[in-house]
Amino acid sequence: MSAAPATTGLTARGSASAGSAAAADPVGCSTLEEVYRRCRDLGMRLSRQRRMVLDLLWSEKSHLSARDIFEKLNDLGRNIGHTSVYQNLEALQSAGVIECLDRASGRLYGYRSDPHSHLTCVESGAIRDLDVELPAELLRQIEQHTGYCIESYTLHLTGRPRR
């Protein structure tokens, strides 16, 4: 299943504006060149291994485990070790350049770092990125019920394909 944003009428990122001050959203990058620039702006070294990891995440546009990334890169003839993959993923995730999803089966890494939601297929386990905007009235109700000002949100939806 593609990790491209869905085109189901769910359009905005999960930034709240229901009467609350929105927090600064993490910067989302739309091109690989923007990701490289963001890494440089953060003072990160763009080693050959780091570029390989970023290139793969951006070309796959899906959610991959560190092992998947290691295997795919080596299958492509790129010589990279397990440790290098793990260290680069940790550094990129810690800097907010990529996302990390903790699942029962382990961590999965994705190319997006902006606020967004996920739809997980219960049959295949595939994860799809979604841009969802909750109605302002619902956000106000949640704020009233909880006593919190909602600054951002992400949803984790599960489902199966319609037959």
Mind sketching the topology for me?
Blueprint: H1 32-41, H2 48-60, H3 66-75, H4 82-94, E1 99-103, E2 106-110, E3 117-121, E4 127-130, H5 136-146, E5 156-159
Parallel strand pairs: 3-5
Antiparallel strand pairs: 1-2, 3-4
Helix pairs in contact: 3-4
Tell me about this structure:
- Helices cover 35% and strands 14% of the residues.
- The protein has 5 helices and 5 strands; from the N terminus they run H-H-H-H-E-E-E-E-H-E.
- The chain has a 3-stranded mixed beta sheet, with no helix packed on it. A two-stranded antiparallel sheet has the order 1-2.
- Strand 3 and strand 4 form a beta hairpin.
- The chain is globular, with a radius of gyration of 17 Å.
Q: Kindly state the mean pLDDT as a whole number? A: 84
- Order of strands in the sheet with most strands: 4-3-5
The name of the CATH topology of the largest domain is Arc Repressor Mutant, subunit A
Stretches where pLDDT falls below 50 for ≥5 residues? 1-26
Count of beta strands? 5
User: What is the rounded distance between the termini?
Assistant: 16 Å
How many DSSP H or I helices? 5
Helix content: 25-40%
Order of helices and strands: HHHHEEEEHE
Query: How would you sum up the major sheet?
Result: 3 strands, mixed
| Estimated radius of gyration | 17 Å
CATH architecture label name of the largest domain? Orthogonal Bundle
The CATH top-level class label of the largest domain: Mainly Alpha
The helix-and-strand class reads alpha+beta
Task: Based on Cα principal axes, name the global outline.
Answer: globular
Q: What is the CATH homology-level superfamily of the largest domain?
A: Winged helix-like DNA-binding domain superfamily/Winged helix DNA-binding domain
- As for the number of domains, it is 2
Strand content: 5-15%
